[in-house]
Write a structure and sequence with these properties.
Blueprint: E1 5-8, H1 10-14, H2 24-36, E2 41-46, H3 59-69, E3 73-78, H4 81-89, E4 94-100, H5 103-110, H6 114-127, E5 133-139, E6 143-144, E7 148-149, H7 152-165, E8 170-174, H8 182-195, E9 202-205, H9 213-222, E10 227-230, H10 250-259, H11 268-279, H12 290-294
Parallel strand pairs: 1-10, 2-3, 3-4, 4-5, 5-8, 8-9, 9-10
Antiparallel strand pairs: 6-7
Helix pairs in contact: 2-3, 2-11, 4-6, 6-7, 7-8, 8-9, 10-11
């Protein structure tokens, strides 16, 4: 049976926009429950300025527990080399580094141009000790909230430059605003895979702003992608992408692949109560999970 790997990003991308601070013990408990449901790879937190994203100020404590449990592979998002080193010092061995294709989004997100962010990525790669794995997230690969649709040539150029720095990095194309369409997703992955056949691991990060999330996941799968980001309960949204709603919901992606006969290793029945719990966290404004909605968990405030 064909299988895919789901990367649960709720503990990072899902939690980062929630205003009331989620107690560290609540985050840890949810990560443990998600692991028990079969999610064995997670973006558990981000090492970032607590002034910019106070919700993730407990990154070191959350990561320490995940490492101590040893049951899931923790992935950590870092915005620059400085915080990448902080993550490494805390024990992180799988770093996810985001570079926006759009200059406007890059300046808003990390206060640097894509060229400057790429140079910082090069410093991080050069300074990282042996055994640290890298993922490069190309944000706004399909659309920018400030500049509109992204040109595929710009994505391919930035991707090529990032691969010169770290040829064995996992590559993730990110639909940051959720405006990508299945045809656009299929075309960009086909172009990228043709241009850079040496890439061994491709991933898709989808949002569900216009209800295209699962369709875009399927389009990427049909082009050979086997790693997919999703968030429990459809939580999330980029704080520097106005109008972007939540990530494609983990439970929707699990159901999609289950209906297609594709193995995820995730127990949907065990996942559903967690979707309800995630959607009900104080400060969650809404959930775009259709499966959670069926269970009465989704809400719009």
């Amino acid at each position: 049976m064909t299988s895919v790997q789901i990367v649960e990003v709720g503990p990072r991308d899902g939690f980062q926009n929630i205003g009331p601070f989620i107690p560290t013990e609540t985050k840890i408990a949810m990560i443990r429950d998600l692991t028990a449901a079969g999610l064995r790879r997670m973006e558990v937190t981000s090492f970032v300025s607590p002034r910019a994203i106070p919700q993730l100020a407990d990154a070191a404590e959350v990561l320490a527990d995940v490492l101590a449990q040893g049951a899931t592979m923790p992935q950590v998002l870092v915005p620059n080399a400085r915080y990448g080193q902080k993550a490494i010092d805390a024990g992180a061995r799988f770093l996810s580094y985001a570079i926006s294709v759009s200059e406007s989004h890059s300046r808003s997100n990390v206060r640097a141009t894509p060229h400057e962010a790429l140079a910082d990525y090069a410093r991080l790669v050069a300074e990282a000790p042996a055994g640290v794995r890298m993922r490069i997230n190309l944000a706004t690969a399909f659309h920018c909230p400030y500049e509109g649709m992204t040109q595929p040539a710009a994505v391919l150029t930035l991707l090529g430059r990032s691969l010169e720095i770290c040829p064995d990095a996992e590559v993730c194309l990110c639909d940051t605003t959720g405006r990508g369409t299945p045809a656009q997703v299929a075309a960009l992955f086909e172009a990228a895979m043709t241009a850079y056949p040496e890439v061994s691991a491709w991933a898709m990060h989808a949002h569900d702003t216009y209800g295209h999330g699962t369709a875009n996941v399927r389009a990427a799968y049909d082009r050979g992608v086997r790693i997919f980001d999703s968030a429990i309960g459809g939580l999330g949204g980029c704080p520097y992408a106005p109008g972007a709603s939540g990530n494609v919901a983990t439970e929707d992606v699990v159901r999609l692949f289950g209906d297609c006969g594709v193995e995820t290793g995730v127990d949907l029945a065990a996942l559903m109560p967690l979707a309800t719990a995630a959607s009900s966290l104080p400060g969650v404004k809404w959930s775009c999970s259709t499966v959670a909605a069926e269970a009465g968990a989704a809400r719009l405030v």
